[in-house]
Amino acid sequence: MKVGSLFAGIGGIELGFEQSGFKTIWANEIDKGACTTYRYNFSDVKLFEEDIRKLDVLKLKYVDVLTAGFPCQPFSVCGNKKGFADERGNLFFEIMRIVDGIHPPIIFLENVANLTDHDNGRTFNTIHNELISRDYFIRYLVADACDYGMPQHRTRTYIVAFTSQDMCDRFNFPEKCELKEQIFDIIDKSKKSDERYYLRHGTYQYEKMLSAIKDENQIYRFSDYGIQASKNGISFTLKANMGTWRDRIPIIKDDYGIRKITPYEALALLGFPKEFRFPDIPLNSAYKQCGNSVVVPVIRRIAEEIKTVMLD
Fold first, then answer.
1. Rounded Cα gap, residues 198 and 119, in angstroms
2. What are 24's strand-pairing partners?
3. What is the distance between the alpha carbons of residues 64 and 50, in angstroms, rounded to a whole number?
4. How far apart are CA 124 and CA 126, in angstroms?
5. What tens digit of pLDDT does each residue of 40-53 get?
6. Contact 161/136 with Cβ under 8 angstroms?
7. Checking DSSP bridges between strand 23-29 and strand 2-6, what pairing results, if any?
8. Average pLDDT value for the chain
9. In contact, 234 and 245? CB cutoff 8 Å
10. 204: helix, coil or strand?
11. Which residue from 123, 166, 245, 254 has the highest number of Cβ atoms inside 10 Å of its Cβ?
12. Which helix (H) or strand (E) holds 275?
């Protein structure tokens, strides 16, 4: 069961599919830092490091599933919400160009929750019409990661499209499951981190955060509205601006002080396996890559359902 990936990022979608028995054949990503991390972890995958608009479809081998976590900022409530009027929003039609070239039996798309409501539903209607005009049958789900076993509020729209109506009819998105872990079941507060992550005593950030931390079992961060705190041991959404605004990196109080979470702890809150590693890249790039990624266990469970209808 072969997978090709567009807007691959650091490979979170591929990880979910590979954990379900799929094999990634090729991938496309434009971000240099993400490509460095991708190659470090997927050395056997043919990676096309280039603008998707320049990607030659004739170079792409046939795959059973085409995946794409296409740019979300044009549709996000935290972005500019320009949708298809945004150059990045228009990249959706590049996915359709690739679809026209390789005709994959199954398409898997991931984007922000607001995709279904953006522009009063017209954006999602356009996506729907582009797929059905190519004889695809679609199913979609808007799901929060914390309803599928991960202690992070990360609500995303997942679209699965099939050329086979029978497969579409038999496909079911995974059922919700009980959340059995909280933030500090994943982040070990008893383990001392590198000194560079700790806020220094007496600084403005340290004093503000010290007064804000009322519950040491929660995670915190500075926001435009003051200091934001998680609730019920479930992290708020990890955002890509962790890599561009240093004060947006989530903060915890561990047994040694008040500090920022590390990129590996961010990966853990996204369900990445421990063997996934960052190469020697700038710290801000690693944070950005985490914030732009996906929750791997949610992808894995959807991929398992796709596998079921493929093999049944």
1. 42
2. 3
3. 23
4. 5
5. 999 999 999 999 99
6. yes
7. parallel
8. 90
9. no
10. helix
11. 123
12. none
**CATH architecture of residue range(s) 2-179+295-311:** 3-Layer(aba) Sandwich (3.40)
Q: Which amino acid is present at 164?
A: S
Whole-model pTM? 0.90
Cα separation, 214 vs 161, in Å, equals 46
Domain boundaries, the chain: 2-179+295-311, 183-290
**Taking Cα atoms as reference points, which of 243, 241, 247, 291 lies closest to residue 266?**
291
Q: 272: Cβ–Cβ under 8 A, 6 or more apart, which residues?
A: 12, 15, 293, 296
Handedness of CA 149, 151, 24, 104 (dihedral sign): positive
pLDDT of residue 80: 47
Measured distance CA(76)–CA(118) in Å, rounded: 8
72, 78, 177, 290: which one is catalytic? 72
Cα-Cα-Cα-Cα dihedral sign, residues 52, 54, 60, 64: positive
User: Tell me, what amino acid is at 130?
Assistant: E
